[in-house]
Write a structure and sequence with these properties.
- The protein is an alpha+beta fold.
- The protein has a domain at about 5-70 and about 85-115 and about 150-170.
- It contains five helices and seven strands.
- Helix 2 (about 50-60) packs antiparallel against helix 3 (about 90-105).
- The longest helix is centred in the middle third of the chain and has 16 residues, at about 90-105.
Length: about 170
Amino acid sequence: MSQPLVLTLRLDAASETVLTELRARYFPKARNYLNAHITLFHALPSSAHTPMEKIISQIASRELRFTVGIKNPFPLGKKGVGINIASHKLRGLHEELMEEFAKERVVLTEQDQRKIRPHVTVQNKVGQDEAKRTLEELRESFEDRPGTAEGFTVWRYEEGGEWTHLKDFPFSLS
């Protein structure tokens, strides 16, 4: 069976650096394979790579870079912490991607069929006490900030949990 594809939203370098530093500080080192990212779809079928690439490319090529809010830390269940990403534009793009994937009969997992709750995971799969301490610490120190959505990135999820970068789809500058 082919490995699934992951679609993420790419942020500007300054925002990615701030969020990746949080991830490096709080995410379990043995599981931290990636820089900070916003996952839009977690497990797209690799068999649908060609129609998906066409859809993603068409949408990205017509979109302008846009501002997102990087906001308030929140609990990810009982064993992790995320940072909310606020953007009506992003929610609209996610819905459009879902509609276009449906037209091409791209089969989505149950998780990927849900409305998106955009966030960056800065901690996951730790004990409840550690997650609670992290959340309290971040709530005291984290400052909301704007970020810029710069495009989409497609990854291949590998056995063992690592991701392989496949392709970037930048948004237009103007």
